[in-house]
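ok so I'm stuck.
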Amino acid sequence: MTITVNDSLSLGRLNLKNRLIMAPLQQYMGTPDAFAVGHHIEHYGRRAKHVGLVILESTAVSANGRLWKNDIGIFTDQHVKPLKKITAAIHAHQTPVFIQLSHGGRKSSPDVTNSLVAPSAIAFDDYYGIPEPLSLAGIERIIEEYRLAAKRSIEAGFDGIEIHAAHGFLIHQFLSPLSNTRSDAYGGSSENRARFLKEVLMAIREEVGSDYPVIVRISATDYCEGGLTPEEWSRMLKPLESELDAIHVSSGGLLPIQPSDVYTAYQLPHAAAIKQHFKIPVIAVGKIYTRSLANRILEDQLADGIAIGRPLLEDPDYAERLLIS
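replied:
not stuck anymore, here's the structure
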């Protein structure tokens, strides 16, 4: 059977009306205390009508883990109410919405972070500075922040959670040997470097249950020798497959390095390489902007879902045209 973007897709217990997913992209419109505002309600509600799923922009689980001074958070109970207005606006179109939970680690904003932390004392660059290596107690504290964020996510009406393990933020920092030089249970082997992600995932599962959709976004490559590759990602994620409902494949962000060529569907080979090892859906993202290309990717079974970001920023009705063109 030929698969197209118009076909449904199951993510755990959810059945998406089509295979187009609104990718998480920051709006930089949060208040100084990380609250969502009216802009977010209008922005997401306006774009939710035709996509199969909306993934909200990166949302901080900790006041010290915000990525930017004007992003949004879910690190207090008071953050729930404005987020609930966003989910209601999206649900008005019978479209589900996931929240992307994140902690910046060594890439947390210096404007709002009192304590820059990471797995190891290795700076991203001079702007961020050298982070403090996390103690075991510090790791436990952040895992608990993820658990509480998951609890609040359900209260806010989200239909699922995306764990942000990409783009050089804290979980990614633990996973890559380029940013993790620990010698304890959280460093060294692939299994040890994946331990933090595993414990975050299990804390979330403890809170949300086994049938609530939880997916993970990854950076399949660090664009640097000695960094993560799709093959190593597959080894690290395979033991977690039974606890995940999809893998969302991006790339880069760990180092201040850009890919040498950002061409059409430039991240697709990474998604296709990872998909070979998993039964759960794999979501491709990155300059997949036409219906013909999206359908070819699905038909060739290189990915199961297509995430689009920037075109939806520029044109709220882009998804409708892509589905019918």
